Amino acid sequence: MKNLNKLPTFANGCDSLLSKHLTDTVFAELKDKHTRNGFDLQQVINSGLINTDSSIGVYAGDKASYSTFSALFDPIIESYHGFKKTEQHQSNFNPNDLDAPNPDPENNYIISTRIRVARNLSALPLGSAISKRQRKIVERLIVVALNKLQGKLAGTYFPLQGMIEAERVKLVADHFLFKAGDRFLEAAGLNREWPEGRGIFHNDEKTFLVWVNEEDQLRMISMQMGGDIKAVFSRLSTAVAELETALRFSKSDHLGYITSCPSNLGTAMRASVHIKLPRLSKNMPEFEKIAKQYQLQIRGIHGEHSESQGSTYDISNRRRLGVTEVECVQVLHAGVLALINREKLF
Ligand code: ADP
Ligand code: DAR
User: How many Å lie between the centroid of ligand 1 and the Cα of residue 36?
Assistant: First the structure.
């Protein structure tokens, strides 16, 4: 380990899973370890050391990180997902198994629905350990696959490098593009050589989008206005299956799809709605009780670490590992129905 030769201390009030699970014993076991890509414990924990407001605080640099540093990752994964190191992840991306009629057919509450999955290529390191040359190879392999998409999924890739700033700002404001300069990703080494090798693909309707080389090498996104959750899921299922014929994604029997952050392992799926709850949002204890019951996250409308606007919130599934893709969306659907029914009672 380059800079740390003793167990780091964490600021008072830091409640990250890193601060909880990096014990003396774990530190002693891992401090001199590294993967064959040279990824070491300092790099695993750097984001959580610098950003003491992290909820998790660790990132993997390659698939091997999850085994090399399992003494730290396993308890973090169990704390976040309730998933034990002896369990095997199961996948089911079949829309026929999803029972999700539109919970808001009159569009009184749900503004938009978005479902995304993260993927990384199996042949190269993850973003925190990848080299500049390797990142360009990842971009090239992904763009070749994206350009093969046909019909309604066909679209165009827009590299971030050279993008007109006003266009970039508008894509972010319209919730289509990732924000730049995330400090958690910065400290994890995921923003190196930014914006080289980064970009966004989208079809003409902007209902299918792919982020390239942000936190993960692919974020495949299906989204549209309104609450037709099943249509959004079906589009994503088709698109992911198409791209899986052209790209080999990193996965394991135990952890499912491999991602930079352990919170995204397994399905690597976040299914979310932007929903207006003017009455329920004035009763946050009740709002939070329902969200907890359905294991939903309540977030602001610009995603992570953002604030709600008015009474519009981003509601999404919290668990991604040890549940299937269908179960992630089924839970969101049930939770959104419960929130809407409670809103109606006020
Ligand atoms: P991820 O979980 O995929 O990393 P975030 O949840 O942080 O992404 O959000 C990324 C962008 O997607 C943000 O601009 C956010 O506003 C937008 N977003 C998330 N859910 C929805 C939704 N249901 N409708 C529209 N935009 C959304
Ligand atoms: N911000 C980091 C990661 C939390 C999960 N979100 C991701 N992976 N985008 C934290 O530890 O708070």
Answer: 34
Specify the DSSP class assigned to residue 24: H
Counting Cα atoms < 13 Å in the Cβ hemisphere of 129 gives 25
- Cβ-count burial of 164 within 10 angstroms (0-12 exposed, 13-18 middle, 19+ buried)? exposed
Beta bridge partners, 157, equal 201
**Residue 206 beta carbon below 6 angstroms from any ligand 1 atom:** no
> Which secondary structure element, helix H or strand E, spans residue 136, and what is its range?
helix 132-146
Shortest-distance Cα residue to atom 2 of ligand 2: 54
Average pLDDT over residues 318-323: 96
Q: In order of start, what are the domains of the chain with their CATH numbers?
A: 17-81 (1.10.135.10), 95-345 (3.30.590.10)
Query: Which residue has the least CA distance to atom 23 on ligand 1?
Result: 273
DSSP element (H, E) containing 313: strand 312-317
Give per-residue pLDDT as tens, 189-224: 999 999 999 999 999 999 999 999 999 999 999 999
Give me the pLDDT at residue 3, please: 64
Q: Which atom of ligand 1 is nearest to the CA of 272?
A: 23
φ, ψ dihedrals at 113, nearest 5°: -125, 140
| Ligand 1 centroid distance, CA of 34 (Å) | 33
Is the beta carbon of 224 within 6 A of some atom in ligand 1? Answer: no
Rounded Cα–Cα distance for residues 93 and 133 (Å): 33
The DSSP line for 27-50 is: HHHHTT-B-TT--BHHHHHHHHHH
Signed CA dihedral, 132, 137, 139, 140: sign only: positive
